[in-house]
Amino acid sequence: MTNASARPTLVEHITAAFEKLTVTEKRAARVLLDNYPMAALGTAASFADAAGVSAPTILRLVDKLGFRGYAEFQAHVRGELEARLQSPLERSDSGPRDRESDAGFLHRYAEQACDNVMSTVRRLPVTEIEAIGKLLMDERRRVYLLGGRFSGALARQFHAHLHAVRGGVQDISGQSQAWPEYLLDLRRRDVLIVFDFRRYQKDVIGFAEDAASRGATVVLFTDPWRSPVSKVAAHVLSARIDTHSRWDSAVAPLVLVEVVTALVTDQRWTRVQSRMKDLESLQTQLHRQPG
Are the beta carbons of 59 and 43 closer than 8 angstroms? Predict the structure, then answer.
């Protein structure tokens, strides 16, 4: 894990400072989030013009976000861009050291995974979890789940749990050429849950954008650098994925999946219990001995 990946991201800086910002600073912060990273790569004057505020407002915002000037702010953004596009091949300094024992690497890796979970939880707005739970408890809303090459495993696990506790849940699987068939059935008020992590997939992003344009409510599970899907998402859960390996970790994202599943199950347990009893009865009938 590099030092850059361990530092708070710009989104986390904004989240931590947001309530302390003035009205005009909040306006600039929203423009920054909606047009990340382009809004941050120009001059302070161009950023101010885009946000409809003064250049001094931009400089005050940068100061409140914890940066010592606009140059340091831009250097931070460039570092984030490099981190979010890294492939396993480019993380050459993050693997186990030659003289480290396997047990030492195991313990160090496990500690990092635990740190990821706690860091994710500390930075996560509880209101986002509650809002997503309410969406999923509303059975008038159909739920679709979509993930990428690796994150698709998280989508499938979430689908398996949600389908056990409520109806109207669909896993979007197969080749992306077939995904438009799911778009045909999407209605306003439906929910699309997207899993997209760094080296973000263009087909996943495109599907989410199309779903949002059709009126679906998009919920995004992503990393601290945030997938471009965040621009059309109503709710975003960012999880830490740093490891002492060349591969990103799915531990913290999985914990978020389990938290939301537990919340939905507990909040509507009476209906879930009835559904699960019916399911077990049907499974028993299906596997009964012939004759």
Answer: no
